[in-house]
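Reply to dn_fold:

You asked what the input looked like. This is it:
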Amino acid sequence: FGSARGFAQHHSQQLSRAELPTRASIMTVTTTRAAAHEPAEQPKDEIGASEFIRKYPSYDGRGIIVGVFDTGVDPGAPGLQTTSDGKPKMIDLVDCTGSGDVDTSKETELEADGTLKGLSGRSLTVPAEWPDRAAGTKYRLGLKRAFELYPRPLVARVKAERRRRHDETQRAVAEEERRKAALGPLPTAEGEAGRKGAELVARVSALDACDKAYEDGGPVYDVLTYKDESGVWRVCVDTSERGALGEAALLAPFRIEGKYGTLDAADAASGAETLCNFAVEVAADGARTTLCVDAGSHGTHVAGIIGAHFPDTPELNGIAPGCQIVGFKIGDTRLDGMETGTALVRALGAAIERGVHIINLSFGEYAKVDDIGRFTAAANLAVHKH
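and this is what came back:
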């Protein structure tokens, strides 16, 4: 169910490239369905939602903020860009799990040549066109492994593609060294010839040992955070992995400017695009920067069912295309998307702060004892007091 056509294109991190349907096949299937039953993506006719909207067209969720407690919501997904009355659909993204946190407590100054040394050891070039820093503030540095951010299916896909590229290069080098060893002098030969033959054999052995010991730690991103002269925190994630910050997005917290980045660049030219979007938040006076990355596609799917808005293809709309959405990530990437009590309680507090009217929680597991504990008490308080 849900607005499947739009979301399938933006959630390839859950699938291998071979498994992804083509755009043409998606459109063909959806068009065929729509011809037979216009709102085929959801049972809106069956539950009376279509008739209700036709009778009361402005009663489509306008003025309502829905909080989606889930794996996170993709800010780049089709249908989640605007409401039916032209407002931004997504108004904030909040990671309540801590899985996207980056320690940016280390401060540094810019060198005279416009560079600074990142925690990875790379030289980071700060673009001159960036907004100036606030007086008396410094740049803050952090470091984050990509595989700590990616959902598990994306880790598997990126590892496979990186291994394929590695093997192609490794194989070519190893074959060349084997050819040299086969045509060169024997290691048992006398004098310099024997030493050269032994060196060629040792190279082949070393390459084979390296190949067997191969382990991919994944991309490692430098994170740069600073406060600009207007008082807004700015964050840049060096997705180029070579210090070219001008090629990466410079972001403010999503609630301020509604902008997001994509964890791509260094691999993109080689065909390992992640298509994985992220937003940022800054806390503790810059000492902690959070990269809000989905733990899976479920939250985006749920958000689409609730409030997707497709102006040109309304049959793909969610139930309330006029509502606005705040995505609260309670599915911890480190736990393969499972929620924690801490994340749930944090999300409730953040939802109250942001004036959320309705919370959707399509999450959880079986429990022998229900309706007790800290989260239940906090939920009751949120509903009945706030």
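Residues 152-183 form the longest helix (32 residues).
Hope that clears it up.
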